[in-house]
Amino acid sequence: MKLKMAMAGNEDLSEVLPECLLHIIISFLPFKEAARTSILSKFWLNLWRATKNIEFHESFFVKPEESDATQVMKRRVFIHFVQQWIGNYCESCIDKFALAVSKPENFVADIENFIAFAIAKGVKGLSLDFSDPTWMEDDPKNHEPLFDLPSHVYEHGVLESLKLFSCKIHIPAIKIFSLLKDLSLGWIELQEKSLKALLQHCPLLQSLSLTKCWNMGHFYLSEPSLLLKKLAIENCSFHDPVWIYIKNAPRLQFFKYSGKVASFDLDYLCCWEEADLDFGLESSFNGTADLLYNLLLDLFSVTILSVCSFMLQVISNSRESYGTAFPLNVRHLTLKTALHGHEFSGITFFFDNCPLLQTLTIVLCPARNFPDYEPPFEFIHNFWTKNLKVYKCLRRSLKTVEVKGFKGTANEFLVLQYLIGLGRVMERLNIYISRETDDNGGNVELYRERAQMLLQLNKASKKLQISIY
């Protein structure tokens, strides 16, 4: 009875549950949220210090907009806080230990002690991030790793998750990570042969993420014994032309790629379920349309697909884009788009080739224009209102549309007018207002007023409900 009352909010959990069980519950919370429980009462004041999910991120203390001198001072306070917290930790083991410091060179001995603490506690998930937020748009080759992974980590054979950013790793030393399931590497040099050796030593690997790695040559994945289910390759530096080869990965379900357009050679027998494609690093679209068209054919089985503005502008220029041989199996499509005219032919391409589409998410982002863009046909300003085609998904399957970052521009309004007026089975239209102001004085209130104008439009579906957030 007391437990039911506590769950209903009528009684403090501390009066019902034993302390050891509260420790387990707190360990499921993110570290920052666990710390916030200390304000609940005197009983809860130090309870969070028994969490087995430990995360120390300098952003708790250091803000990027502060002066260099202030950052140096606060980074020292942060390191001192970690020292004190670890010194008072009394539990015998931990599950996860995460540390993020952007200027580790002044605290090498301290950081090595923090890592030694985690290893001594039998940590299963280790995350070390020494990258700097100011690097985000930089060429990764300009930033050598700032910290060397201590030798005793290579001897810690119980690791199940390892995430290293700007942390130099000695691949030949990795021979004991037989339990590793999740591996993320970023801001490091990673040659093709090193990656192959790494995968051979991790037979249970299920998730692999590579971010801003360089000197990779090409990406070659062909390990029939791999259990890999998730693969993410984000803005890595390859030799030109880029070649992505994925074979013998029958369990692969999730594929994320961002960077320059590559020659993709994918295993069509894979049971792909989700793909996220972003070619934002491209500065020219010439000669890439057929490569992207063939990529979509290889991904014909995915049910969740996310595509970028570059894809929308380019795909209709493919020689075969009119009349896809294999209609896509996509049920949830995300368009990262500015909804400008150069993207319209690509949007209709996906409407036409996703006959089973049930959910459409439009994530509005800044426009990208390419100087050598050649539209597949002459653009007309009444594109969405004249000679309208009602695609099969609009007639039969599309039930939910989400728009994120709505400002109510003319093109946004026209596209939504089209969907509302022709979406015969639509049930939900969720509009999330942008919080950004624009150069023309646009603000949240103005965007909301524009969104409310959509409520007055004629609806093709009597079940359609429009919500504005």
UniProtKB/TrEMBL annotation:
InterPro entries: F-box-like_dom_sf, F-box_AtFBL13-like, F-box_dom, FBD, FBL13/AtMIF1-like, LRR_dom_sf, LRR_FXL15/At3g58940/PEG3-like. This is F-box protein At3g29830. Residues 392-469 form the FBD domain. It comes from Durio zibethinus. It comes from the Eukaryota. The gene is LOC111288865.
